[in-house]
Amino acid sequence: MPAPVQLTPVDLGPGVRAVFSTRHGGVSAPPYDQLNLGYHVGDDWDRASANRQLLATAIGSPLERCCYAHQVHGERVLTVGEHQVGTVRTRRGRRDADALVTGVADAPLVILVADCVPVLLADPEARVVGAVHAGRQGLVAGVVGAAVAAMRAAGAGEIRAAIGPSVCAGCYELPADLAAAVDAAVPGTASRTRGGAPSVDLVAGVAAQLAALGVTASRDGRCTIESPELFSHRRDGVTGRFAGVIWLEP
Length: 250
What we know:
Elements: E1 7-10, E2 16-21, H1 45-59, E3 67-68, E4 77-80, E5 99-102, E6 109-113, E7 117-123, E8 128-134, H2 136-141, H3 143-153, E9 160-163, H4 176-185, E10 190-192, E11 198-200, H5 202-212, E12 216-219, H6 233-236, E13 242-248
Parallel strand pairs: 3-6, 4-5, 9-12
Antiparallel strand pairs: 1-2, 2-13, 5-8, 6-13, 7-8, 7-9, 10-11
C-alpha cells in the first residue's frame, strides 16, 4: 500500500477547494517516485494512471471528472463546460492548453509542474475557477492574463489567486541574454542567483501580472529545487510532475 497522498490546501474562499500535491503517496518507482502525475515524462503509464486515481480519491472526486490538458508552454486557455469535463485528460485527441477555466461544479482543474509556476484562481461569488501553468515561455506569452480574461468572460469579477511552489530566482540561472529578454517582456523579473549569475524571478513576474489585473495573490514560497518533497526537472533531470488542483464544491 502506498503512503497517504500529501496535499497542501489553499484557502481561496467559500465553495472553492484548492490544493498543491507533493511527490509523496504514489506508486511510481525512481526516478519518478512516488506520486508522479505526468504521462509524458517516461514513467510507466499504468503507474502514472494509478497515481492520478490516488489523487482523485484524495480530493474526493471521481477521476473521470478531473480535467488535465496537454501543456505546451503557450498561452491557450481552455474553458471547460459540463459536456467537456474530463475529456481533456484522455490519451487520444489531446487538447493543447496551459490554462483551464470552468464554472462547472466538481470538475477539478489539474495543472502539472516541476519548476514552472502553478497558479490557482477563483472568484467564489461568481463560482468561476481557473488553473494556470506559467513557465518562462508561458509567462512571456501572456498565459496569466489570458486566463484572467477567460475567467472574466465566464462571469468572474473579484478574483483571488494562489501562486504555488516553483523554482526560485536564487536557483533559476539563465544565460544573460535570455534573462534580459524575459525582463524586457515582463519588467521586474531580472534577478541574480545566490552565486551571482543572471536569473529570472518567475514568481515575481506572475505576481506583477496578477496585480496589474487587480488580482490579489498569496504565495506558497517553496522552491522546487530546494524542496525534496517536490519534483524538480532542473534539479533531477528525469523526474515526475506534481499538481495544482482547484475545483468548485457542488
